[in-house]
Specification:
There is one protein chain. Helix content is 44%, strand content 14%. The chain has one domain: Rossmann fold, CATH 3.40.50. By secondary structure, the protein is an alpha/beta fold. The chain has a six-stranded parallel β-sheet, with helices on both faces. It contains seven helices and six strands. Strand 2, helix 3 and strand 3 form a beta-alpha-beta unit.
Length: 177
């Protein structure tokens, strides 16, 4: 009986619960979760960009963090990118809420993509102090990101592994406060 009780207590302890959780659009974003929150902004482009979000999720699996991922498995390219399209509106509103909720906005611009929505989000959050960005060589507007990032102090990294390492450092610094 005692080993069972001990097992139950371990399951409820913060150490046993440590780890990441991913919320994917359009699921509800918890408002009462005290863990640091990371929004996974970046290239998707109807699947032209690889699923780099999965790499981030795997790399942060042992962190005590809430990940907000806008990449939807059920995305329908037939949905019009118009405000009166219900699912399109739902997606955009989810992303805006997730950006506002996030403590860190990890932003990855994949080479060979244009990522206009992520560029918009970069502009919205350049002065926020939340952004950590990677725009490797081959991203079509890397120069714009570099110049704007220099002006507003946005940390930028050369590739996805360096960006992930920067997120881990930021999370550790937040925990140390």
């Amino acid at each position: 009986m005692k080993p069972l009780l001990l097992s139950c207590l371990l399951l409820l302890s913060p150490v046993a619960m440590a780890g990441s959780q991913t919320i994917t659009s359009p699921a509800a974003i918890p408002g009462d979760d005290a863990r640091p929150t990371v929004f996974l902004a970046g290239s998707i482009e109807m699947g032209r960009a690889g699923d780099w979000q999965r790499q981030v999720q795997q790399a942060l699996a042992d962190e005590d963090v809430l990940l907000l991922n806008p990449r939807r498995a059920d995305w329908n390219p037939a949905w019009r990118a118009e405000a009166d399209e219900p699912e399109f509106r739902r997606q955009v509103e989810w992303e805006l809420a997730a950006l506002e909720r996030a403590d860190i906005v990890l932003m990855y611009f994949a080479p060979g993509t244009q990522s206009p929505v992520t560029l918009l989000e970069f502009g919205l959050y350049a002065r926020s102090g939340k952004l950590l960005v990677a725009a490797p060589a081959g991203f079509w507007r890397k120069g714009n990101l570099d110049i704007t990032g220099d002006r507003y102090g946005v940390p930028r990294h050369d590739d996805l592994p360096a960006l992930i390492a920067a997120v881990k450092r930021r999370l550790a610094a937040q925990r140390a406060r």
